[in-house]
Amino acid sequence: MTKKISKPGQLAEDFFYRPFTTLDATSKWWQDRKNKWLGIGFRSDRGRRPSMKSMGSAFRVRETQQKTKSTTIPAWSETSIFDPVLAEILYRWFVPAGGAVFDPFCGGSVRGIVASMLDLHYTGLDIRPEQVRENQKQAKKILLPDMPKPIWKVGDACGKSLYRIHRGQSDFIFSCPPYGDLEVYSKRKEDISNMPWDTFVGALTHSIKQACTQLKNNRFAVFVVSDFRDKNGMYRGFPDIVRQAFNQAGLKNYGELVLLNALGTLPVRTRGAFEKSRKIGRAHQNVLLFVKGDPAKAIADLGDVQCSDPLLKIMPESS
Ligand SMILES: C[S@@+](CC[C@H](N)C(=O)[O-])C[C@H]1O[C@@H](n2cnc3c(N)ncnc32)[C@H](O)[C@@H]1O
Question: How remote is the CA of residue 278 from the centroid of ligand 1, in Å?
Answer without folding.
Answer: 31
